[in-house]
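quick one, four chains, predict together pls
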Amino acid sequence: MEYTLHYLLMADHAMVQKKLFSDIRDMGLSLGQPKVLDYLKDRDGAVQKEIARGCHIEPASLSTILRGMEKSGLIIRRMQEDNRRNLKVYMTDRGRELGKEITKKFSEIEKKALTGFSEEEMEKLRSFLTKIYENLEE
Amino acid sequence: MEYTLHYLLMADHAMVQKKLFSDIRDMGLSLGQPKVLDYLKDRDGAVQKEIARGCHIEPASLSTILRGMEKSGLIIRRMQEDNRRNLKVYMTDRGRELGKEITKKFSEIEKKALTGFSEEEMEKLRSFLTKIYENLEE
DNA sequence: CTCCTATAATTAGCAAGCTAATTATAGCCC
DNA sequence: GGGCTATAATTAGCTTGCTAATTATAGGAG
């Protein structure tokens, strides 16, 4: 049985989400939040528009996720005085703390996923996935 | 910038979904339906449980999708007389027709995604993605 | 200054996906 | 047969994600 690329991507993506789910839940997070914490890790203070692009979701989707994160004290949003349309997003201490756990969890999953891969194969895989993105982005 | 596997998978998956979206919409389908049509293509008459497993979604999620598909005349469900818990799912002519278009669409996207890949690279990619799934499945 | 357009974020309404709980049937053991 | 357990599907309630429409602000052209 020859699987399509679409099928394989879907399967892997679903599997990774599934692996994440229970731990995420235990941390009191929902599934959309980890990617935001991971993004903010190195870009604290980013504007919503940028975060959405970096997380590959629409600004409207991000808006809902951030509302929940703000409510549960993971981030705060501050309006920019020089341009009142922009909201910069900052992690709270709690957010930063959970962010670290998420990062650790991501790398655990990645390690397990890549069991048996040589250094060279990992590099190839990464370059293939990047190339696919670029090809479709046109 | 070194991206995590999780990030790259997420990005590619999101991009493929995005590419599908508009064409899917034009065919009158919603995003959950194509994978089911694609699955049924070679397995008409499968039982819901099997379809869910093959599509990497939960039976509960499939249930909702199938309700919509039955309502719009893409499939019919028939109870098995020998085991009244099982529902076999059959494509209608309309379903089969749209299934063919979906398959074509999938391969168009795949072709675009793999632009510049050698035959050997495609094979490697497929084996990597399969391996990742198996590693995580444990 | 006013109008027009562009941009950032949000809201509304929908589909997809999940878990947990429910319903209905099956199968086994006494 | 009666009662336990297992299994297939559905329903309920939630979050994520989308598009389309709305709100608020910015900025340029006349």
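The radius of gyration of chain A is 17 Å.
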